[in-house]
Write a structure and sequence with these properties.
20 strands; Rossmann fold; globular; six-stranded parallel β-sheet; 3 domains; 581 residues; alpha/beta
Length: 581
């Protein structure tokens, strides 16, 4: 560019995003952002606008999770930023690479009680984000944005936040004074060292009952290809956490289903694993916490994760590999050179036999209970109609658990649901982000009536942008996990602020412009799903379910206290032991 040419801050930022390969951003309008919004239009970056900043953030998060690319969320200052904090925290706990760009009042008006000022946005964001920074000068926009993108996309990925004061964003500088966006596409792929790979191969060959448990960092096409190549000669059972579901296609002989199926093996007389390879996942609640139910205390543990600080959480490991999942599996395959432990095929058959036991336990129940449709049968009918090639978004408490247990997938990064924040209300935003990541795939958003209420206006977003998302609400007119937990703790007639009767969600969805219907009979679910899947815009099915049916996960998360025990039951966490005198 000529030295006399000037460039506006918003243009600099938009050009940097384009240089990083950004094609899609999720936003809600605010005057602080006008220069950037104009720059995005000029650079060909698609802007999808929302009705609430939290949903915009969740959509950018979902886009990042399913594509592996940078998600971008653009929101205004003050309440726009504070509304997005939940989405930032949700992305942080699940290591999702999202760039949050937030506006701010002018630097020259600091401490004047300006509009949407008076709070330290960076101080608020810092503990919720991987990294956050306020850009101090227009000429520094490009290189500091590039730094933010590198931090989001490398190592253990996560959300980053850039604050752009309105004067910094709207001012112009001579083009030759603007710093270049250096290193905007840096993407290293760490691999294990040869000694680690050799030790892993030795441990695997010595094991009698090895398994792989795949987590979030394994939920990508590169790792799927590596794992599928590995099991072609090494029939090791593979289990998955949430987003990694579909790493092996539905029906594959080595597909053991959800990681929680490992906890069922002792119930059917099968020995627990003696070696667990935790591939790209974290130890914590979603792997049974400190209980040893999923990762047995007696098993040797190999933990492969990009963040070395995660390795050794909760329990010791026998081999730590700070690397990416795909490079580690490819290195293991080369090291094994076709070798496999003796008897592995027989163990594989035993280990995967727990897959489907949950569904089988409800197969003999009636689809209708007299008080509504059984939620298991409702979720099963929905997911069977959508099939294993859809995107699934599961929101709510028990609703997400019913659906997650029966849905099938042929590709990783196709199941989007709650992570360690346990954040309700993600559904609409996640569904929109998933749909825009791949417009040709159908998205099925299944939620409970409680979670549906958080961001109902995003149905308007789906209609305005003509997104063919199938929205399903299992309406039992209660906060299911809440009231069931209360009644387990305090008796069957007890409830406090856990009933939400009377809302007709199908009418609300119809008013927003969705193809909408309410279903009260099980036999009507499949035809309703066909109409929804045939529709070329957003659809909505409200299924009335029985509030008295308790999901087993609710009982397991509360834990059990023996009748003669004085231990204190703590919902969702470990119970507090009380010593007797």
């Amino acid at each position: 560019m000529a030295g006399t040419e000037r460039i506006v801050g918003g243009q600099l930022l938009a050009k940097t995003l384009k240089a990083a390969g950004v094609k899609q951003a999720f936003a809600l309008h605010g005057g602080h952002l006008e220069a950037l919004l104009k720059g995005c239009v000029e650079e060909g970056i698609t802007l999808t606008d929302f009705r609430h900043e939290a949903s915009a953030g969740h959509a950018a998060d979902a886009y990042a999770r399913v594509t592996g690319e940078l998600g971008v969320c653009i929101v205004t200052a003050g309440p726009g930023f504070t509304n997005a904090v939940t989405a930032i925290a949700n992305a942080k706990l699940d290591s999702s690479p999202v760039l949050f760009i937030v506006g701010a009042p002018p630097l020259r008006e600091v401490e004047t009680n300006p509009l949407q000022g008076g709070i330290d946005q960076i101080a608020i964001a810092r503990p919720a984000a991987k990294w956050s920074l306020s850009i101090p000068a227009t000429e520094r926009i490009a290189d500091l944005t590039a730094m933010a993108i590198r931090k989001a996309m490398t190592g253990t990925r996560g959300p980053v936040l850039l604050e752009l004061p309105i004067d910094v964003l709207h001012m112009s500088v001579p083009a030759d004074r603007a710093t270049p966006p250096a290193g905007v596409n840096v993407r290293p792929r760490p691999a294990p060292c040869p000694s680690e790979t050799a030790q892993l191969a030795d441990m695997l060959l010595a094991a009698k009952r090895p398994v792989i448990i795949a987590g979030t960092e394994a939920a990508n096409s590169e790792t799927a290809a590596a794992v599928r190549d590995l099991v072609a000669t090494l029939p090791i059972p593979v289990f998955a956490k949430g987003l990694a579901t579909g790493l092996l296609p539905d029906g594959h002989a080595c597909n053991g289903g959800a990681a929680g199926n490992l906890a069922m093996l002792p119930m059917i007389g099968v020995d627990v694993p003696d070696l667990v390879i935790l591939l790209g996942g974290k130890m914590g609640l979603l792997l049974g916490g400190r209980s040893g139910a999923i990762v047995p205390h007696t098993a040797k543990l190999v933990h492969i994760h990009s963040d070395a600080g995660e390795i050794g959480r909760i329990r010791d490991v026998d081999l730590a590999i700070a690397a990416y999942s795909d490079t580690s599996i490819a290195a293991l395959k080369a090291e094994l050179a076709g070798r496999a432990p003796e008897g592995l095929e027989a163990w594989r058959a035993q280990a995967v036999s727990a897959n489907g036991l949950f569904a089988a336990s409800f197969a003999g129940t009636e689809p209708e209970t007299g008080k509504g449709i059984h939620p298991f049968h409702a979720a099963l009918a929905v997911t069977e109609a959508a099939g294993p090639d859809a995107f699934y978004v599961f929101d709510g408490g028990e609703a997400a658990s019913w659906a997650g247990a029966v849905a099938r997938s042929n590709k990783p990064a196709s199941f989007l649901s709650h992570g360690y924040l346990g954040c309700l209300g993600i559904g609409q935003g996640f569904a929109i982000g998933a749909q825009l990541s791949d417009p040709k795939r159908r998205v099925v958003h299944l939620t409970g009536d409680g979670a549906m209420g958080f961001n109902l206006p995003e149905l308007d977003t789906m209609v305005r942008h003509k997104l063919p998302i199938v929205n399903i609400v299992l309406n039992n007119e209660v906060w299911g996990m809440s009231i069931h937990g209360q009644q387990i703790m305090f008796g069957g007639n007890y409830s406090v602020i856990s009933k939400i009767p009377g809302t007709h969600y199908a009418d609300i969805a119809r008013a927003f412009g969705c193809l909408s219907e309410r279903v009260t009979k099980f036999e009507d679910i499949a035809p309703a799903m066909k109409r929804a899947l045939d529709h070329d815009g957003p659809s909505f099915i409200e299924i009335m379910t029985d509030a008295d049916v308790v999901h087993p996960v609710t009982e397991s998360m509360l834990g059990q206290v023996a009748p003669d025990s004085q231990d204190v039951m703590i919902p969702y966490y470990e119970n507090i032991p009380v010593d007797r005198d």
